[in-house]
Write a structure and sequence with these properties.
The protein is of the alpha/beta class. Helices cover 47% and strands 12% of the residues. The protein contains ten helices and six strands. Strands 3-2-1-4-5-6 form a six-stranded parallel beta sheet, covered by helices on one side. Helix 1 (17-30) crosses helix 4 (66-83). The radius of gyration is 17 Å and the shape is globular. The termini are close together.
């Protein structure tokens, strides 16, 4: 029986991946690079800062001004999300359902603590989570399972009693390697077959997670 649900944040609860991609495109255009495609950006999804930066270095070379790009883009993203946090379809209904039915909940995201706290507050969903763990609070980022296993420890449940909700391939692999069931709600990228095979289910929106929990209860 599932006792806890572990939520990714960006691209899963918050429709922030499109915002992030657009800000990278804007910054790279200013630097004279107009080749930052959605396909390239998808390689960043689900990764922590180190992993994301490596994607840029691999593509643009060691001389690429990664620190400048990272800092400027994330200032712009934060400004955008302060003004408005776009929540994914079905999020509020799912959070209400989990609270009403006594599930433990936690956010497990590659984003840093300060950013996570601000986004959850601005989205007015902080109260629906028992805890959170962020990318700057673990040693190994996704696709390593550390963040999800630590989330289980924080909630006092076993991996078999937890369910991970993810949108990225890195998150799917992290959950799978942690022996935790994972439902994928694709965002900008549908998982490749090797990753899709590692999911418990792939659904269209967070609304569908309620149906899944009803079916297994």
């Amino acid at each position: 029986m599932k006792k806890a649900v572990i939520f990714d944040m960006d691209g899963l609860m918050i429709d922030s991946e499109r915002v992030t991609y657009n800000e990278y495109v804007k910054k790279l255009h200013l630097l004279g690079h107009d080749d930052f495609t959605e396909e390239l950006y998808r390689n960043c999804l689900g990764k922590n800062k180190i992993g994301i930066c490596q994607v840029f270095i691999d593509h643009y070379g060691e001389s690429f001004p990664m620190d400048e790009v990272w800092d400027d883009v994330h200032v712009w993203i934060d400004e955008s999300l302060r003004a408005y946090v776009p929540k994914k379809k079905g999020l509020d209904d799912l959070l209400h359902y989990l609270k009403d039915h006594g599930y433990k909940t936690i956010v497990a995201t590659s984003s840093a603590r300060a950013r996570v706290d601000e986004i959850l507050k601005n989205a007015q969903i902080t109260e629906y989570f028992d805890d959170s763990i962020c990318g700057d609070e673990v040693i190994h980022g996704k696709p390593n399972p550390e963040i999800f296993l630590t989330a289980c420890e924080k909630l006092g449940v076993s991996p078999k009693e937890a369910l991970v909700l993810e949108d990225s391939e890195a998150g799917i692999l992290a959950a799978y390697d942690g022996d935790i069931d994972v439902i994928c709600v694709p965002d900008m990228k549908y998982p490749e077959p090797d990753y899709a095979a590692k999911t418990t289910k792939i659904v269209d929106s967070l609304e569908d997670v309620i149906d899944y929990l009803e079916d297994i209860s």
